[in-house]
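User: For a benchmark we're assembling, each entry needs the component sequences followed by a predicted structure for the full assembly. Here are entry 17's components. Please fill in the structure.
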Amino acid sequence: MTQSSLQARCVSTSETVTEQAALETKSVTLAYEQHVIAKDLSVDIPHGKFTVIVGPNGCGKSTLLRSLSRLLVPQSGEILLNGENIHSQSTREVAKKLGLLPQSAIAPDGIKVIDLVSRGRFPHQKWFKPWSEADQTAVELAMQATGVMDFAEHNVDQLSGGQRQRVWVAMALAQETSLLLLDEPTTYLDIAHQIELMDLFQDLNRIQGHTLVAVLHDLNHACRYADHLIMIKSGEIIATGSPNDIITEALIKEVFGLSCLILPDPISNTPLIIPRGRAEK
Amino acid sequence: MISNTSHSPRTSTRTVLGPALALILGIALIFFTLFIGRGIGDGIAHNLQGIWQLIIGEAEKYQSIVVWQWRASRLFSAITIGAALGISGAVFQSLVRNPLGSPDITGFNVGAFTGVLISIALFGNLYWYSVIGALIGGLGAAILVYLFAYRDGHSGFRLIIVGIAISATLTAFNQWLSLTVSLETAMTAALWSAGSLNGMTWSRIMPATLLIIIFIGLAFALNTRMKLLEMGDDTAAALGISVNKTRLVLMLIGVSLTAVATAITGPISFISLAAPQIARRLHPQQHITLVGSALVGALLLTSADFIAQHAWQNVTLPVGLVTISLGGLYLVYLIIREGK
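Assistant: Structure for entry 17:
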């Protein structure tokens, strides 16, 4: 186990201690040119937890994630990474603390799994001493944690969607950051691969102590896996907290305009959201 | 056990055959162009002994001058310029993530031509003025494309489309300029616009070579960043790359390579477009590498110049004409292959 993940593990065991958030936005305004997505938005991402952001299409959840990962500069307000303004740090410094799994990642033609995972080491490498023992260890650990070691020498384009997504996760893990941001990581995967990937994220959070932030579409996945849920509607935070504490039929109606029934999930004892839709009429 | 630099366990004959053929073709071209080829000083060496004397420097003075001053400098120019164009193409195709992303498609060499035209019109046909004019023109065209294509960052495809539009506009402007200037200037410009390696003496190619080496060195220094950028802006940024800054610097390197090449030879199309793609097909793992693109670019331009010198009895064609014809065939091939 590397030093940084050991440290991270310590953090995750001290959950009761109220401390500074891993990542927070302080009344930020997020916009693409003139098009304002969110105004005066303040969010805390707690240390050592699995935070999930949900909300209807176009509510600004991906935009929020982009700003949290330094990809989008807020028009006003500031974003703090471990208490320090994220934009006063260089991209490279941030890349040593915060990893991101974007939606739009393009695998280069004919690249091998191990070579793609190795690219995650870039922020740690220096101009004239490119590959070190630490790099090698980090890559191997990342591939073990995500279960892609067996096809290290395969081409990424030969893999299934689920395997490929795990390779991207491995690349982000090789970056050895305690924070990991995931933008709709399960989209386009079948249900079995979605669960497999969500279980992997849970392990990364609980066993390896990574602080995770994911944007998800599936509310039931969000409820089952999240320690901390952030619900957004039209750029505003409607509710935050653990799924068991905040999810109510009224909240789902307010955020998604969906009438539903909520039962306790018989397996995980978290809220299970059952849409009523037309079936009840 | 994992190694970071490993190669495919299965090395099929095809992966060896392609590069081997390219290598043999390259060596043969160098040999023929230097010692046997036609052109000035026909039949310079009649047998192996004559060639050996040329190599060890014991041949007659006239023969030595023809081979080592005239032919060798021209061959060297073809190799250097070809390599510069190949790398320029590889950089652009990587930047826009599209095989059509090439400085000759997006109009940077047309911009360089505009710069040269203006420089000839203002200062006459002077070497360094043309080089600087080409650099300014090429960079100017690139900046125009960059600005017009900007909308919340750059999509590769938009850069290409805007580039084609700018290229068409500049072509029209160049024609208008050629019609307005004096006949002498227009003639010089017309000769130059065909793209030719005629009269490439050592004193002409060496300063450009120096610039080309600097820019190629920069391209190699940024190679890793370039490869990471190919995975998407967000992925690259997440890995700690300043996306916009890196892209701008890479673009400047690519434009400068094309502009320097264009400044001394005139526009030579399609090398940038084709070299990286051919290099990819020759690479065992189908990767586009800078080294591969440079080698294929050099080979393409050397072959094209060989054809230019030998295709017609007693007439040396401008090499730009040959590359544009070969390039046209290549494009047709690409379109047919994509259509299947």
